[in-house]
Amino acid sequence: MQLGFDADERAFRDEVRAFFADAVSPAFRSRLRAGLRLGPEELIAWQKHLAAHGWGAPTWPVEYGGCGWSPTQIYIFEMEAALADAPIQFHQGLELIGPIIFTFGTPAQKAHYLPRIINSDDWWCQGYTEPGAGSDLASLKTRAVRDGDDYVVNGQKMWTSYAHVATQMFCLVRTSTDAQRQAGLSMLLIDMTTPGLTVRPIETLDEKRHSNEVFLSDVRVPAANLVGEEGGGWGLGKVLLDRERGFGAASALRLSQHLRGLKAAAAEASNGAGRVSDDPVFIARLAQIEIETMAVEMMVMRLMADAAAGKDSGPRASMLKLRWSELLQAITELWFETLGYDAAAFRALDHAEAVDRDIGYAVQGALNARVTTIYGGSSEIQRNIIARRNLGL
Ligand SMILES: Cc1cc2nc3c(=O)[nH]c(=O)nc-3n(C[C@H](O)[C@H](O)[C@H](O)COP(=O)(O)OP(=O)(O)OC[C@H]3O[C@@H](n4cnc5c(N)ncnc54)[C@H](O)[C@@H]3O)c2cc1C
Protein backbone atom coordinates (compact mmCIF):
# COMPACT_ATOMS: atom_id res chain seq x y z
CA MET A 1 0.00 0.00 0.00
CA GLN A 2 1.43 3.39 -1.01
CA LEU A 3 0.67 6.15 1.50
CA GLY A 4 2.37 9.27 0.11
CA PHE A 5 1.29 11.17 -3.01
CA ASP A 6 3.67 11.63 -5.94
CA ALA A 7 4.30 15.02 -7.59
CA ASP A 8 1.44 14.60 -10.12
CA GLU A 9 -0.97 13.63 -7.37
CA ARG A 10 0.08 16.60 -5.24
CA ALA A 11 -0.48 18.90 -8.23
CA PHE A 12 -3.91 17.33 -8.74
CA ARG A 13 -4.70 17.86 -5.03
CA ASP A 14 -3.80 21.55 -5.34
CA GLU A 15 -6.04 21.91 -8.40
CA VAL A 16 -8.98 20.23 -6.62
CA ARG A 17 -8.39 22.31 -3.47
CA ALA A 18 -8.42 25.56 -5.47
CA PHE A 19 -11.64 24.52 -7.23
CA PHE A 20 -13.47 23.74 -3.99
CA ALA A 21 -12.19 26.93 -2.30
CA ASP A 22 -13.94 28.87 -5.03
CA ALA A 23 -17.02 26.70 -5.55
CA VAL A 24 -18.35 25.90 -2.08
CA SER A 25 -20.82 28.32 -0.58
CA PRO A 26 -20.40 29.00 3.19
CA ALA A 27 -24.18 28.58 3.45
CA PHE A 28 -23.73 24.80 3.06
CA ARG A 29 -21.25 24.43 5.90
CA SER A 30 -23.38 24.07 9.06
CA ARG A 31 -25.83 21.68 7.48
CA LEU A 32 -23.16 19.47 5.94
CA ARG A 33 -21.06 19.33 9.12
CA ALA A 34 -24.16 18.24 11.02
CA GLY A 35 -24.61 15.31 8.64
CA LEU A 36 -27.54 16.65 6.62
CA ARG A 37 -28.02 16.31 2.90
CA LEU A 38 -28.81 19.47 1.00
CA GLY A 39 -32.18 19.83 -0.69
CA PRO A 40 -32.73 18.41 -4.20
CA GLU A 41 -32.48 21.83 -5.90
CA GLU A 42 -29.14 22.53 -4.22
CA LEU A 43 -27.78 19.08 -5.09
CA ILE A 44 -28.88 19.44 -8.70
CA ALA A 45 -27.20 22.87 -8.93
CA TRP A 46 -24.01 21.45 -7.36
CA GLN A 47 -23.97 18.50 -9.78
CA LYS A 48 -24.46 20.82 -12.77
CA HIS A 49 -21.58 22.99 -11.52
CA LEU A 50 -19.27 19.94 -11.30
CA ALA A 51 -20.44 18.71 -14.72
CA ALA A 52 -19.75 22.10 -16.32
CA HIS A 53 -16.20 21.83 -14.97
CA GLY A 54 -15.85 18.30 -16.45
CA TRP A 55 -15.93 16.69 -12.98
CA GLY A 56 -19.51 15.42 -13.00
CA ALA A 57 -18.66 11.71 -12.80
CA PRO A 58 -15.37 11.19 -10.92
CA THR A 59 -15.63 7.38 -10.86
CA TRP A 60 -16.76 6.81 -14.47
CA PRO A 61 -14.57 5.95 -17.47
CA VAL A 62 -13.82 8.78 -19.91
CA GLU A 63 -15.72 7.09 -22.76
CA TYR A 64 -19.00 7.57 -20.87
CA GLY A 65 -18.32 11.17 -19.93
CA GLY A 66 -16.51 10.41 -16.67
CA CYS A 67 -13.20 11.75 -15.36
CA GLY A 68 -11.35 8.44 -15.79
CA TRP A 69 -9.50 9.16 -12.55
CA SER A 70 -7.33 6.65 -10.74
CA PRO A 71 -8.50 5.40 -7.32
CA THR A 72 -5.91 7.70 -5.71
CA GLN A 73 -7.30 10.71 -7.57
CA ILE A 74 -10.85 9.78 -6.49
CA TYR A 75 -9.59 9.54 -2.90
CA ILE A 76 -7.96 12.98 -3.17
CA PHE A 77 -11.13 14.47 -4.70
CA GLU A 78 -13.35 13.11 -1.92
CA MET A 79 -10.89 14.06 0.83
CA GLU A 80 -10.61 17.62 -0.47
CA ALA A 81 -14.41 17.81 -0.84
CA ALA A 82 -14.76 16.88 2.84
CA LEU A 83 -12.10 19.39 3.92
CA ALA A 84 -13.89 22.15 2.00
CA ASP A 85 -17.36 21.19 3.33
CA ALA A 86 -18.50 20.47 -0.20
CA PRO A 87 -21.75 18.53 -0.68
CA ILE A 88 -21.55 14.81 -1.38
CA GLN A 89 -22.81 14.08 -4.91
CA PHE A 90 -26.23 12.41 -4.94
CA HIS A 91 -25.33 8.80 -5.62
CA GLN A 92 -28.38 6.96 -6.92
CA GLY A 93 -27.92 7.99 -10.54
CA LEU A 94 -24.19 8.50 -10.47
CA GLU A 95 -22.97 5.55 -8.44
CA LEU A 96 -25.82 3.04 -8.68
CA ILE A 97 -27.74 2.90 -11.95
CA GLY A 98 -25.20 4.83 -14.10
CA PRO A 99 -22.47 2.16 -13.85
CA ILE A 100 -25.07 -0.57 -14.43
CA ILE A 101 -26.21 1.18 -17.61
CA PHE A 102 -22.70 1.72 -18.96
CA THR A 103 -21.78 -1.91 -18.16
CA PHE A 104 -24.96 -3.78 -19.13
CA GLY A 105 -27.24 -1.30 -20.92
CA THR A 106 -28.15 -1.18 -24.59
CA PRO A 107 -26.51 1.46 -26.84
CA ALA A 108 -29.80 3.40 -26.81
CA GLN A 109 -29.96 3.33 -22.98
CA LYS A 110 -26.36 4.51 -22.74
CA ALA A 111 -26.87 7.33 -25.23
CA HIS A 112 -30.05 8.55 -23.57
CA TYR A 113 -29.47 8.17 -19.83
CA LEU A 114 -25.74 8.60 -19.16
CA PRO A 115 -25.34 12.28 -20.17
CA ARG A 116 -28.57 13.09 -18.34
CA ILE A 117 -27.19 11.51 -15.15
CA ILE A 118 -23.94 13.48 -15.33
CA ASN A 119 -25.79 16.73 -15.92
CA SER A 120 -28.46 15.91 -13.31
CA ASP A 121 -31.25 16.26 -15.88
CA ASP A 122 -32.83 13.13 -14.37
CA TRP A 123 -33.17 12.36 -10.66
CA TRP A 124 -33.12 8.61 -10.03
CA CYS A 125 -34.65 6.63 -7.20
CA GLN A 126 -34.07 3.01 -6.26
CA GLY A 127 -37.13 0.72 -6.24
CA TYR A 128 -35.91 -2.42 -4.51
CA THR A 129 -37.40 -2.77 -1.02
CA GLU A 130 -41.02 -3.84 -0.56
CA PRO A 131 -43.17 -4.24 2.58
CA GLY A 132 -42.19 -7.95 2.80
CA ALA A 133 -38.79 -7.77 1.12
CA GLY A 134 -35.89 -5.78 2.58
CA SER A 135 -32.93 -7.80 3.81
CA ASP A 136 -34.44 -10.78 2.04
CA LEU A 137 -34.74 -8.94 -1.26
CA ALA A 138 -35.17 -12.10 -3.35
CA SER A 139 -38.66 -12.52 -1.91
CA LEU A 140 -39.94 -9.38 -3.66
CA LYS A 141 -43.36 -9.67 -5.30
CA THR A 142 -43.83 -6.68 -7.61
CA ARG A 143 -44.87 -8.41 -10.81
CA ALA A 144 -44.01 -7.46 -14.39
CA VAL A 145 -45.83 -9.34 -17.15
CA ARG A 146 -44.84 -8.97 -20.80
CA ASP A 147 -47.64 -7.65 -23.00
CA GLY A 148 -46.55 -6.90 -26.58
CA ASP A 149 -43.81 -4.26 -26.53
CA ASP A 150 -44.42 -3.42 -22.87
CA TYR A 151 -44.20 -4.89 -19.40
CA VAL A 152 -47.24 -4.32 -17.21
CA VAL A 153 -46.12 -3.77 -13.62
CA ASN A 154 -48.19 -4.21 -10.45
CA GLY A 155 -46.97 -4.03 -6.86
CA GLN A 156 -45.60 -1.79 -4.13
CA LYS A 157 -42.17 -0.44 -3.26
CA MET A 158 -41.28 0.84 0.19
CA TRP A 159 -38.78 3.32 1.67
CA THR A 160 -38.07 4.69 -1.81
CA SER A 161 -35.83 7.67 -1.06
CA TYR A 162 -36.61 10.84 -3.00
CA ALA A 163 -39.28 9.15 -5.16
CA HIS A 164 -41.27 12.37 -4.77
CA VAL A 165 -38.66 14.36 -6.69
CA ALA A 166 -37.39 11.56 -8.94
CA THR A 167 -38.02 11.55 -12.67
CA GLN A 168 -36.87 7.91 -13.07
CA MET A 169 -36.81 4.76 -10.95
CA PHE A 170 -34.62 1.68 -11.42
CA CYS A 171 -36.81 -1.08 -10.21
CA LEU A 172 -36.36 -4.77 -9.41
CA VAL A 173 -39.46 -6.69 -10.51
CA ARG A 174 -40.51 -10.32 -10.71
CA THR A 175 -40.85 -11.46 -14.32
CA SER A 176 -41.25 -15.16 -13.53
CA THR A 177 -42.65 -17.16 -10.65
CA ASP A 178 -41.54 -20.49 -12.15
CA ALA A 179 -37.80 -20.05 -11.81
CA GLN A 180 -35.76 -20.15 -8.60
CA ARG A 181 -36.53 -16.97 -6.57
CA GLN A 182 -33.47 -15.00 -7.73
CA ALA A 183 -33.71 -16.10 -11.37
CA GLY A 184 -37.23 -14.67 -11.65
CA LEU A 185 -36.08 -11.06 -11.12
CA SER A 186 -35.44 -8.37 -13.75
CA MET A 187 -34.50 -4.70 -13.72
CA LEU A 188 -36.69 -2.08 -15.38
CA LEU A 189 -36.14 1.66 -15.83
CA ILE A 190 -39.45 3.36 -15.10
CA ASP A 191 -40.45 6.93 -15.91
CA MET A 192 -42.03 8.33 -12.73
CA THR A 193 -44.72 10.14 -14.72
CA THR A 194 -46.13 6.88 -16.14
CA PRO A 195 -49.89 6.55 -15.50
CA GLY A 196 -50.68 4.12 -12.63
CA LEU A 197 -47.64 5.09 -10.54
CA THR A 198 -48.41 6.83 -7.21
CA VAL A 199 -45.97 8.15 -4.59
CA ARG A 200 -46.98 8.53 -0.93
CA PRO A 201 -44.74 10.07 1.77
CA ILE A 202 -43.40 8.23 4.83
CA GLU A 203 -42.89 10.47 7.86
CA THR A 204 -39.41 10.18 9.38
CA LEU A 205 -37.90 11.20 12.75
CA ASP A 206 -35.92 14.09 11.31
CA GLU A 207 -39.11 15.63 9.90
CA LYS A 208 -37.57 15.95 6.46
CA ARG A 209 -39.34 14.61 3.39
CA HIS A 210 -37.16 11.94 1.82
CA SER A 211 -38.88 8.57 2.19
CA ASN A 212 -41.83 7.24 0.24
CA GLU A 213 -44.00 4.32 -0.68
CA VAL A 214 -44.48 3.79 -4.41
CA PHE A 215 -47.59 2.02 -5.71
CA LEU A 216 -47.63 0.54 -9.21
CA SER A 217 -50.98 -0.31 -10.72
CA ASP A 218 -50.96 -1.56 -14.33
CA VAL A 219 -47.93 0.63 -15.08
CA ARG A 220 -46.86 0.08 -18.71
CA VAL A 221 -43.09 0.12 -19.17
CA PRO A 222 -41.56 -0.25 -22.66
CA ALA A 223 -39.64 -3.54 -22.96
CA ALA A 224 -36.77 -1.42 -24.30
CA ASN A 225 -36.34 -0.25 -20.68
CA LEU A 226 -35.28 -3.70 -19.50
CA VAL A 227 -31.61 -3.63 -18.40
CA GLY A 228 -29.66 -6.76 -19.30
CA GLU A 229 -31.50 -10.04 -19.77
CA GLU A 230 -34.98 -10.85 -18.54
CA GLY A 231 -34.34 -12.85 -15.35
CA GLY A 232 -30.89 -11.29 -14.96
CA GLY A 233 -31.95 -8.63 -12.45
CA TRP A 234 -30.53 -10.35 -9.38
CA GLY A 235 -26.97 -10.23 -10.71
CA LEU A 236 -27.36 -6.53 -11.56
CA GLY A 237 -29.00 -5.83 -8.21
CA LYS A 238 -26.11 -7.40 -6.33
CA VAL A 239 -23.56 -5.37 -8.29
CA LEU A 240 -25.55 -2.29 -7.35
CA LEU A 241 -25.65 -3.13 -3.67
CA ASP A 242 -21.89 -3.73 -3.63
CA ARG A 243 -21.40 -0.38 -5.29
CA GLU A 244 -23.70 1.28 -2.76
CA ARG A 245 -21.49 -0.06 0.02
CA GLY A 246 -18.37 1.03 -1.87
CA PHE A 247 -19.89 4.49 -2.20
CA GLY A 248 -19.32 4.44 1.55
CA ALA A 249 -15.76 5.58 0.78
CA ALA A 250 -17.07 9.10 0.13
CA SER A 251 -19.30 8.96 3.21
CA ALA A 252 -16.44 7.63 5.36
CA LEU A 253 -14.20 10.50 4.32
CA ARG A 254 -16.92 12.93 5.44
CA LEU A 255 -16.58 11.81 9.09
CA SER A 256 -13.79 14.31 9.74
CA GLN A 257 -16.18 17.03 8.51
CA HIS A 258 -18.74 16.07 11.16
CA LEU A 259 -15.99 15.94 13.81
CA ARG A 260 -15.15 19.56 13.03
CA GLY A 261 -18.80 20.47 13.57
CA LEU A 262 -18.88 18.60 16.89
CA LYS A 263 -15.69 20.29 18.12
CA ALA A 264 -17.01 23.74 17.23
CA ALA A 265 -20.24 23.00 19.16
CA ALA A 266 -18.30 21.69 22.20
CA ALA A 267 -16.12 24.82 22.27
CA GLU A 268 -19.25 26.93 22.71
CA ALA A 269 -21.48 24.69 24.84
CA SER A 270 -21.44 24.78 28.64
CA ASN A 271 -22.06 21.81 30.94
CA GLY A 272 -22.65 24.00 33.99
CA ALA A 273 -19.07 23.64 35.29
CA GLY A 274 -17.35 25.03 32.21
CA ARG A 275 -17.00 24.47 28.48
CA VAL A 276 -17.84 20.97 27.26
CA SER A 277 -14.61 20.92 25.23
CA ASP A 278 -12.62 21.08 28.52
CA ASP A 279 -14.48 18.17 30.12
CA PRO A 280 -12.12 15.15 30.47
CA VAL A 281 -14.92 12.66 29.77
CA PHE A 282 -15.84 14.49 26.57
CA ILE A 283 -12.15 14.69 25.59
CA ALA A 284 -11.69 10.92 26.09
CA ARG A 285 -14.81 10.06 24.06
CA LEU A 286 -13.80 12.46 21.29
CA ALA A 287 -10.27 11.02 21.18
CA GLN A 288 -11.65 7.48 20.81
CA ILE A 289 -13.91 8.54 17.94
CA GLU A 290 -11.06 10.44 16.25
CA ILE A 291 -8.78 7.40 16.44
CA GLU A 292 -11.49 5.20 14.92
CA THR A 293 -12.15 7.81 12.22
CA MET A 294 -8.45 7.77 11.28
CA ALA A 295 -8.60 3.97 11.10
CA VAL A 296 -11.58 4.21 8.73
CA GLU A 297 -9.72 6.70 6.54
CA MET A 298 -6.85 4.22 6.34
CA MET A 299 -9.34 1.54 5.37
CA VAL A 300 -10.54 3.74 2.50
CA MET A 301 -6.92 4.16 1.34
CA ARG A 302 -6.47 0.38 1.40
CA LEU A 303 -9.67 -0.08 -0.61
CA MET A 304 -8.42 2.43 -3.15
CA ALA A 305 -4.97 0.81 -3.29
CA ASP A 306 -6.59 -2.61 -3.85
CA ALA A 307 -8.78 -1.16 -6.59
CA ALA A 308 -5.72 0.44 -8.25
CA ALA A 309 -3.94 -2.94 -8.16
CA GLY A 310 -7.04 -4.68 -9.61
CA LYS A 311 -7.49 -6.76 -6.42
CA ASP A 312 -10.82 -7.95 -5.04
CA SER A 313 -11.59 -5.90 -1.93
CA GLY A 314 -13.12 -8.95 -0.23
CA PRO A 315 -15.46 -7.95 2.57
CA ARG A 316 -13.87 -4.50 3.01
CA ALA A 317 -16.77 -2.60 1.42
CA SER A 318 -19.08 -4.14 4.04
CA MET A 319 -16.55 -3.42 6.81
CA LEU A 320 -16.40 0.18 5.68
CA LYS A 321 -20.20 0.58 5.56
CA LEU A 322 -20.47 -0.89 9.04
CA ARG A 323 -17.77 1.34 10.53
CA TRP A 324 -18.64 4.68 8.91
CA SER A 325 -22.35 4.35 9.70
CA GLU A 326 -21.70 3.43 13.34
CA LEU A 327 -19.12 6.20 13.71
CA LEU A 328 -21.47 8.76 12.20
CA GLN A 329 -24.03 7.76 14.82
CA ALA A 330 -21.40 8.03 17.58
CA ILE A 331 -20.35 11.51 16.43
CA THR A 332 -23.87 12.87 16.06
CA GLU A 333 -24.95 11.33 19.40
CA LEU A 334 -22.01 12.96 21.20
CA TRP A 335 -22.97 16.23 19.51
CA PHE A 336 -26.55 15.75 20.70
CA GLU A 337 -25.31 15.23 24.28
CA THR A 338 -22.97 18.22 23.98
CA LEU A 339 -25.96 20.45 23.25
CA GLY A 340 -27.60 19.19 26.45
CA TYR A 341 -30.88 20.90 27.25
CA ASP A 342 -30.79 22.83 23.98
CA ALA A 343 -30.99 19.58 22.03
CA ALA A 344 -34.08 18.50 23.96
CA ALA A 345 -35.68 21.91 23.58
CA PHE A 346 -34.72 22.75 20.02
CA ARG A 347 -38.31 22.68 18.82
CA ALA A 348 -39.17 25.28 21.44
CA LEU A 349 -36.49 27.61 20.10
CA ASP A 350 -37.31 30.10 17.45
CA HIS A 351 -36.39 28.40 14.13
CA ALA A 352 -33.94 31.15 13.18
CA GLU A 353 -32.25 30.93 16.58
CA ALA A 354 -31.96 27.11 16.42
CA VAL A 355 -30.42 27.31 12.97
CA ASP A 356 -28.21 30.26 13.85
CA ARG A 357 -26.67 28.28 16.70
CA ASP A 358 -26.52 25.11 14.54
CA ILE A 359 -28.72 23.31 17.09
CA GLY A 360 -31.49 22.57 14.62
CA TYR A 361 -29.08 21.07 12.12
CA ALA A 362 -27.25 19.05 14.78
CA VAL A 363 -30.47 17.52 16.12
CA GLN A 364 -31.74 16.70 12.64
CA GLY A 365 -28.33 15.28 11.75
CA ALA A 366 -28.37 12.99 14.79
CA LEU A 367 -31.86 11.74 13.92
CA ASN A 368 -30.99 11.39 10.25
CA ALA A 369 -27.88 9.33 11.11
CA ARG A 370 -30.09 6.61 12.64
CA VAL A 371 -30.96 5.42 9.15
CA THR A 372 -27.40 4.80 8.00
CA THR A 373 -27.18 1.46 9.82
CA ILE A 374 -30.38 0.31 8.05
CA TYR A 375 -30.28 1.46 4.42
CA GLY A 376 -27.96 -0.11 1.87
CA GLY A 377 -28.05 -3.33 3.93
CA SER A 378 -28.43 -3.21 7.71
CA SER A 379 -25.46 -3.65 10.08
CA GLU A 380 -26.56 -7.22 10.85
CA ILE A 381 -26.52 -8.05 7.13
CA GLN A 382 -23.06 -6.44 6.74
CA ARG A 383 -21.80 -8.60 9.63
CA ASN A 384 -23.23 -11.70 7.93
CA ILE A 385 -21.40 -10.78 4.70
CA ILE A 386 -18.12 -10.18 6.56
CA ALA A 387 -18.48 -13.51 8.38
CA ARG A 388 -19.21 -15.35 5.13
CA ARG A 389 -16.49 -13.73 3.04
CA ASN A 390 -13.78 -13.42 5.69
CA LEU A 391 -14.32 -16.44 7.85
CA GLY A 392 -15.96 -18.68 5.25
CA LEU A 393 -18.99 -19.22 7.54
C1 LIG B 1 -34.83 6.02 5.44
C2 LIG B 1 -34.66 4.80 4.58
C3 LIG B 1 -34.32 4.98 3.25
C4 LIG B 1 -34.25 3.88 2.40
N1 LIG B 1 -34.05 4.08 1.05
C5 LIG B 1 -34.26 3.04 0.21
C6 LIG B 1 -34.33 3.25 -1.21
O1 LIG B 1 -34.17 4.39 -1.70
N2 LIG B 1 -34.61 2.20 -2.02
C7 LIG B 1 -34.80 0.94 -1.53
O2 LIG B 1 -35.03 0.03 -2.31
N3 LIG B 1 -34.74 0.69 -0.19
C8 LIG B 1 -34.49 1.72 0.69
N4 LIG B 1 -34.46 1.50 2.04
C9 LIG B 1 -34.75 0.16 2.52
C10 LIG B 1 -33.60 -0.51 3.24
O3 LIG B 1 -32.65 -0.99 2.33
C11 LIG B 1 -34.23 -1.63 4.08
O4 LIG B 1 -34.98 -0.98 5.11
C12 LIG B 1 -33.20 -2.54 4.68
O5 LIG B 1 -32.60 -3.32 3.68
C13 LIG B 1 -33.83 -3.47 5.76
O6 LIG B 1 -34.97 -4.10 5.27
P1 LIG B 1 -36.35 -4.05 6.07
O7 LIG B 1 -36.66 -2.66 6.43
O8 LIG B 1 -37.36 -4.83 5.31
O9 LIG B 1 -36.03 -4.81 7.44
P2 LIG B 1 -35.93 -6.38 7.64
O10 LIG B 1 -35.18 -6.99 6.51
O11 LIG B 1 -37.29 -6.91 7.95
O12 LIG B 1 -35.03 -6.46 8.94
C14 LIG B 1 -35.56 -6.21 10.27
C15 LIG B 1 -34.41 -6.46 11.25
O13 LIG B 1 -33.98 -7.83 11.18
C16 LIG B 1 -32.58 -7.89 10.90
N5 LIG B 1 -32.31 -8.99 9.98
C17 LIG B 1 -32.97 -9.28 8.84
N6 LIG B 1 -32.43 -10.37 8.24
C18 LIG B 1 -31.40 -10.77 9.03
C19 LIG B 1 -30.45 -11.83 8.96
N7 LIG B 1 -30.44 -12.69 7.93
N8 LIG B 1 -29.51 -11.93 9.94
C20 LIG B 1 -29.50 -11.04 10.99
N9 LIG B 1 -30.40 -10.03 11.12
C21 LIG B 1 -31.33 -9.90 10.14
C22 LIG B 1 -32.26 -6.55 10.23
O14 LIG B 1 -30.90 -6.20 10.42
C23 LIG B 1 -33.19 -5.59 10.96
O15 LIG B 1 -32.61 -5.22 12.20
C24 LIG B 1 -34.44 2.57 2.92
C25 LIG B 1 -34.71 2.40 4.28
C26 LIG B 1 -34.83 3.48 5.11
C27 LIG B 1 -35.18 3.25 6.56
Q: How would you describe this structure to a colleague?
A:
The structure is a single chain. This protein has 393 residues and is an alpha+beta fold. The protein has three domains: 7-104, Acyl-CoA dehydrogenase/oxidase, N-terminal domain (Butyryl-Coa Dehydrogenase, subunit A, domain 1); 124-231, Butyryl-CoA Dehydrogenase, subunit A, domain 2 (Beta Barrel); 238-391, Butyryl-CoA Dehydrogenase, subunit A, domain 3 (Up-down Bundle). The chain contains 15 helices and eight strands. The protein has helices at 7-23, 29-33, 40-52, 71-83, 91-104, 107-118, 233-246, 248-253, 255-268, 280-308, 316-339, 341-344, 351-356, 359-369, 379-391; strands at 124-127, 143-147, 150-157, 168-174, 185-191, 197-202, 211-222, 226-227. The strands form two sheets. Strands 1-4-5-8 form a four-stranded mixed β-sheet. Strands 2-3-7-6 form a four-stranded antiparallel β-sheet, with no helix packed on it. Helix 5 packs antiparallel against helix 6. It is globular and about 75 Å long. The chain starts with 6 loop residues before the first helix and ends with a helix. The model has no long low-confidence stretch (mean pLDDT 91). The chain binds flavin-adenine dinucleotide. Residues 125-129, 134-135, 159-161, 211, 371, 374-375, 377-378, 380-381, 384 line the site of flavin-adenine dinucleotide.
